[in-house]
Structure prediction request, 117 residues.
Amino acid sequence: MGSGSIEREMIAGTVGEGVATEFHAYLTLARALPSIQNIIDNQGTAEVPTDPATRYALTTNLSQYSRQSQESLMIFMSRMPSEFALLYIRDIRDKLNISKCPEIRKWIKTHKALFES
Prediction:
């Protein structure tokens, strides 16, 4: 039995099978996320995940970072599929002045059809 199996069994023994299954899935995804610091330092070259669940989790993490730090990560987000970049912009727009970020303005101009619906 590997350490992941032991961890899962301990969680299941504490909270039950259903919750343990969901929490274990969350832990697996959270542990697989790319380094936020690497993305901050290398927005133009950091690896973009291909798995939709990882993309979604990463987008929400990067949104939280931008809301707290007041720093845009749009260079990286523009490399993600448009639905994730749009989610990022919607998540940060109330906390970050997106009109002052050239990368966000450029992305919105290029994808303005997404905002017209």
User: Anything to note?
Assistant: Residues 33-115 form one domain.
